[in-house]
């Protein structure tokens, strides 16, 4: 019985984690669309820290696949 209880608890934790990740992804997509006023149809986001606004915009101009850059 102890093994069954541990497996059951692990399954519930995995389910909770999966649900949390799904909710987080939806919020990220909504945030991107509100910040950029663009519909994002892909599934790849890039996060780069410690850049100035000028560097962020320059990177997006040079990268052919960059549709929009949001600076925070």
From TrEMBL:
Residues 19-72 form the Apple domain. Residues 1-28 form the signal peptide. Keywords: Signal. PROSITE patterns: PAN. InterPro entries: Pan_app. This is Apple domain-containing protein. It comes from Orchesella cincta (Springtail). The lineage of its organism: Eukaryota, Metazoa, Ecdysozoa, Arthropoda, Hexapoda.
């Amino acid at each position: 019985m102890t093994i069954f209880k541990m497996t059951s608890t692990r399954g519930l934790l995995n389910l909770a984690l999966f649900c949390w990740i799904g909710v987080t992804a939806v919020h990220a997509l909504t945030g991107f669309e509100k910040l950029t006023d663009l519909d994002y149809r892909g599934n790849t986001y890039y996060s780069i820290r410690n850049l100035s606004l000028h560097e962020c915009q320059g990177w997006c101009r040079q990268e052919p696949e960059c549709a929009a850059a949001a600076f925070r």
